[in-house]
Write a structure and sequence with these properties.
Layout lengths: L12 H9 L10 H18 L5 H22 L5 H16 L11 H10 L5 H7 L8 H14 L6 H4 L5 H8 L7
Helix pairs in contact: 1-3, 2-3, 4-5
Length: 182
């Protein structure tokens, strides 16, 4: 093994956790496609093994996943929220399969909502004014409106878990824009 991106397809979940929990793993230099492959392989193994993990293993998995994404962002930049979106989508999927668990950060639906709302690229009022005639906007504005759609998607299936959250009304305000978004 010569680097953190070698043999990703041959690792089981525990091997991914060990690899990305190593002290220097998040300092690896890699190309965007290498980090994407690492995230895809890790997520796939986690999705295969998601049920039946102890809280201790969930903590280790969560720390390794966070380290992998932090390393990816450090090495390649945010890549138009690539790493955030991967994280939100995986967390949303896990919550749908396993459900929330107190004290397990990876299984906290509130984190998905809070992070999605924090990443919104413009205020809701501006999006509401722009979305109906997005075809007339410049590319950057269109990309920002598309990002809103992408950020809403992982939160939507968590509605039953978040209906009592203090910021749920804010999410619903964004959600009302969805039909007009590109």
């Amino acid at each position: 093994m010569t680097g953190p991106f070698d043999g990703l397809d041959r690792l089981d979940l525990d091997a991914h956790v060990r690899r990305w929990s190593a002290p220097d793993a998040s300092l690896a230099d890699g190309e965007v496609n290498q980090w994407i492959a690492a995230a895809q392989q890790f997520a796939a193994r986690l999705q295969d093994d998601a049920t039946g993990l102890s809280d201790e293993r969930w903590h280790a998995v969560g720390q390794a996943w966070t380290a992998l994404l932090a390393g990816a962002e450090r090495a390649t930049g945010p890549q138009r929220n690539e790493w955030l979106l991967r994280d939100l989508r995986l967390r949303s999927w896990l919550l749908g399969q396993v459900g929330p668990r107190a004290g397990v950060a990876l299984l906290d639906p509130e984190a998905v909502l809070e992070r999605a709302l924090a990443a919104m690229p413009m205020p809701a009022q501006e999006a509401a004014r722009s979305a109906p005639h997005w075809r007339e906007l410049d590319r950057e504005q269109i990309m920002a409106l598309r990002m809103i759609r992408r950020l809403l998607a992982p939160v939507r299936p968590l509605a039953p878990l978040l209906a009592d959250h203090p910021r749920w009304d804010e999410f619903q305000e964004w959600e009302r824009l969805a039909d007009d978004l590109p």
